[in-house]
Design goal:
Strand order of the largest sheet: 14-15-16-13-12-18-19
Radius of gyration: 24 Å
Number of strands: 22
Bound molecules: NADP nicotinamide-adenine-dinucleotide phosphate
Length: 509
């Protein structure tokens, strides 16, 4: 295990933990489905191909998963289309009870899901457990929302008609998810789709398909009818999903991933004017005003920066700190980050795991080097960690210049670049100087200023004196190039519903 200062350990200890848990890991991996799930059947891909899923903490192979072809994608859409009519006719209460049963079943398997995510994605077990609780909550939340879909009946202003407005399921959906939150990104889409009465095809990220497959097994066990959910892991995303997006039977695309791929999929979706939800990249500013409680801001910064090793769309990407408190903030943040234990997620002591792969770690290091070349100083970290796995030292950079790429690009790693501002106007200008608009964080004790920030900052979400905002009961989503649509909250189910209007003749005419 790689260690930072402040904690003592040895590689022997990690070896022991790995040995102790190896048996339970293997038992779990042997029980997780690795086939495609189409029309209620677990099956091999049409060309019998598979691809390998790796453990980012060791680089070792975890499982070989069926590799869907375009023909498999088409079979999955056929199943979703065939199931749509009868699924839309099920009683909302039936769909609600099914989601609630899935919530209970998932919670009962919490430890399995947590270990599986740690294995395929790398996050520390404690964080994986947190994701299980968060991800499962979408099932419970949308079980409650399923029975609350309503419309309205009104009289036209001229009195000559009655207006009936109601909601219908959009129809078969394609759901595409990223690797960084393998469970929550799936439940955030699947649960509202089920609640609304939509059928679906889900394509998980090739790096982390196992969690989605285990989740599908849970839904099968609690009685989700065949064809409602179809899972097609694949190593050839575009070739498999492209024909589905072009298929006129598909009615909606919900995508979570990078802005680059999202833009491309939006353009593809335009061909048949698909309903789309796009949860894309972020470049979150984290503002610390001179009146803030600096210790609280540092606590919040650690969470906002390091949750999921910084591999989160909501990760604080730019620390914009008042010049009076910038040195204190940088020193305290660096001290906290230095004390963190970095190591394989399966070690209960690990607070920070590896990055997902070599390419991601290289990109993080490249951004750090570019920042240094353009004038930044390394307060702590700044290096990949030697040895197995894709670990990177928690890093604080101060005096980051405006030319640094790290201020414009998503870092997706444990690096905190700090810049300074003089007054509120400058802080807002710097914060909004990005094409993204997912989330922002503000630390201040001034309530009026906090309210001004909620109006001035261009982001779909804002944390005030809080380093995490994600909540199943709240509408998650971005503005600008961070996306379209919302997941969670009462808004989340609307993404899977069409509004229909019926005009009725005046009953007195
Ligand atoms: P990504 O490369 O855009 O991939 C996301 C998903 O799209 C994966 O399933 C991927 O499949 C698939 N994909 C890639 N190319 C495709 C294509 N041409 N056609 C159809 N599907 C395609 O993003 P990522 O690296 O997995 O995830 C990180 C990004 O997601 C970051 O930018 C992060 O900010 C964003 N994110 C946003 C949110 C949000 O709610 N706003 C939440 C989490 C993550 P493969 O796995 O096979 O490449």
């Amino acid at each position: 295990m790689a260690m930072l200062s402040g904690r003592s350990s040895s590689s022997t200890r990690t070896e022991n933990i790995v040995t102790i848990t190896r048996t339970s890991q293997q038992t779990l991996l042997d029980s997780v489905p690795t086939a495609l799930y189409i029309d209620g059947q677990w099956r091999a891909s049409t060309d019998a191909g598979t691809f390998v899923v790796h453990d980012p903490a060791t680089g070792s192979e975890l499982a070989a998963v069926a590799d869907a072809t375009a023909a498999d994608g088409s079979a999955a859409l056929d199943a979703a289309v065939d199931a749509q009519k009868s699924w839309a006719r099920t009683a909302p209460r039936e769909r609600a009870e099914l989601l609630r049963a899935a919530f209970d079943a998932l919670i009962a398997r919490s430890e399995d899901f947590a270990l599986l995510m740690t294995l395929e994605m790398g996050k520390p077990l404690a964080e994986a457990r947190g994701e299980v609780a968060y991800g499962a909550e979408f099932l419970r939340w949308f079980s409650e929302e399923a029975v609350r879909v309503s419309g309205r009946y009104s009289t036209a202003p001229d009195g000559r008609m009655r207006l009936l407005v109601h909601k219908r399921p959009v129809g078969p959906c394609l759901l595409i998810t990223p690797w960084n939150f393998p469970l929550a990104m799936a439940t955030r889409k699947v649960a509202p789709a089920i609640a609304a009465g939509c059928t679906m095809v889900i394509k998980p990220a090739a790096l982390t398909p196992l969690t989605t497959l285990l989740f599908a097994q849970i839904l099968e066990e609690v009685g989700l009818p065949p064809g409602v959910l179809n899972v097609i892991p694949t190593s050839r995303a575009g070739a498999v999903t492209g024909p589905l997006i072009a298929d006129p039977r598909l009615r909606k695309l919900s995508f979570t991933g990078s802005t680059e791929i999202g833009r491309q999929l939006l353009a593809d979706s335009a061909q048949q004017v698909l309903r789309t939800s796009m949860e894309l990249g972020g470049n979150a500013p984290f503002l610390v005003f001179a009146d803030a409680d600096i210790d609280a801001a540092v606590e919040g910064a650690v969470v906002a920066k390091l949750r999921n090793m910084g591999e989160a769309c909501t990760a604080a990407n730019r620390f914009i700190v008042h010049e009076f408190v910038a040195d204190e903030f940088a020193a305290k943040l660096a001290r906290k980050m230095q004390r963190l234990t970095v190591g394989p997620g399966i070690d209960p002591d690990s607070e920070l795991g590896p990055l997902i792969d070599q390419k991601s770690r290289d990109k993080v290091h490249d951004l750090v080097q570019d920042a240094v070349t353009t004038g930044a100083s390394i307060v702590t970290g700044g290096q990949p960690m030697p040895g197995d796995g894709y670990f990177y030292l928690p890093t604080v950079l101060s005096g980051v210049g405006a030319a640094a790429r790290i201020l414009r690009e998503e870092v997706f790693g444990p690096v905190a670049p700090i810049t300074t501002f003089r007054d509120e106007e400058e802080a807002v200008r710097l914060a909004n100087d990005t094409e993204y608009g997912l989330v922002a964080y503000v630390y201040t004790r001034d309530t009026a200023r906090a309210l001004r920030m909620s109006e001035e900052l261009e982001s779909g979400m804002l944390g005030i004196n809080a380093g995490v905002v994600s909540n199943p009961a709240a509408p998650f989503g971005g503005i600008k190039q961070s996306g379209l649509g919302r997941e969670g909250g009462s808004e989340g189910i609307e993404e899977y519903l069409d509004t229909r209007y019926v005009g009725l003749a005046d009953p007195y005419a």
